[in-house]
Amino acid sequence: MEGAFLLSASFSVFITISIVIFLSYEAMGFFKEVSIKEFLTEKQWTPLFANPKFGILPLITGTLLISVISLTVALPLGIIIAVYLSEYANYRIREILKPLLELLAGVPTVVYGYFALLFLTPLLKKIIPEIQGFNALSPGIIIGIMIIPYISSLSEDVMKSVPMHIKEGSYAMGATKFQTAFKVVIPASFSGISAAFIMGISRAIGETMVVSIAAGMMPNLTLNPIESVQAIPAFIVQISLGDAPHGTIEYKTIFAAGITLFLLTLFFNLIGAWLKKRIRESY
Question: If you placed Cys at 180, which of 157, 170, 200, 247 could pair as Cys (CB 3.0 to 4.6 Å)?
Fold first, then answer.
């Protein structure tokens, strides 16, 4: 049995290393024709134009902008839901609410994308008339709703693992349930909450369908959420549809964008691992 576990773990590591090697090898073909300096400093990304520009900054900005909006929605709501499920809800309510909440994670992302484009964007247009038809705000909010189950479920598990004697100590000092939840339980489970936060970032950065449908296909170096932007996954989808012949520099941009997305995700995961190690509480 131990050998089967080791084989399964080794297979996962092998797949991960294979993906990294494949992406790096294909991306090298791109960087033989485009310098890393141009890739990182050029402010335009127009690989399909007659005079192509290969600056990844507009795609990174669009990706991070949508991720920040989604986490602004998902983090507070996810933690509040986790506190309610962990500290306030009785067993019966928790057994009903938690599966219902987790259903959000099971909705196909293409449905979320069209919900953002056809329902949320027209609704936002009544509040913000100048918002564009394709924008960063609408998919950011929808992705935030989409990742709430990831953050709330993981945070609730961590909060429930806080030892009862710590909570009882708080109650013994005269604290209310609300004060105990926000001044004892949340700080005590902060390392787990930070892991949920990092998982939410990774999920938001890698989301493809929602941003492809609702954010637009216009690489735009802006931090204005009401303007159209393009995220890295959306660009990869666009090129993969067959707009660029195989082997051309336009085709190779898929792998340059892919390795950038991988490094972004890795960067946030490393920060999460560092935070978890640094502020971990042992009981």
Answer: 170
